[in-house]
Amino acid sequence: MSNETRRNALNARRKERNRTRIREAAHGRPRLSVHRSSRYIYAQIIDDVKGVTLVSASSLEPGLRSSLKSGANVAAASEVGKLIAERAKAAGVAEVIFDRGAYLYHGRVKALAEAARESGLSF
Fold it and tell me: Three-class SS of residue 120?
């Protein structure tokens, strides 16, 4: 097994383990899912009961893209966190459960979560 295949398998296991714990603790709350790439960061609030995305935000959006130096730094993640919280409040979502996926709660993921909390999203 190559190193890349092993790394992908470990990431998949970590993601599934995290997702299982989230499902157990959710109690009907929507899930704030985070995805980060080398160039951008994305967040969406998903209602797993209905299987629909309620709101989404990313550093790829034209309004954020023009004001940010890079879409893949802590400042961009903070802006996306604020934006997702504003959109969630507008959609009537106040409480979510945080899904970091296979990513560690550090750096950009942590910045997005803290900005969302400061903007009024509860998790």
Answer: coil
> Where do the domains of the chain lie, and which CATH numbers do they carry?
3-118 (3.30.420.100)
Residue 85 tokens read as 């919280």
Q: Per-residue DSSP letters for 55-93?
A: EEEETTSHHHHHH-S-SSSHHHHHHHHHHHHHHHHHTT-
Main-chain dihedrals φ then ψ at residue 105, nearest 5 degrees = -80, 80
Q: Other C-beta atoms within 10 Å of 109: how many?
A: 22
Amino acid at 50: K
- Report the predicted TM-score, pTM, of the whole model to 2 decimal places: 0.88
Q: What is the mean pLDDT of each run of 10 residues along the chain (123 residues)?
A: 90 90 90 96 95 96 90 95 97 95 94 97 94
Residue 113 contacts residue 81 (beta carbons within 8 Å): yes
| Position 24, amino acid | E
9-to-14, 20, 22, 36, 103 alpha-carbon distances in Å = 9, 16, 20, 18, 14
Dist. CA 26–CA 75, nearest whole Å: 29
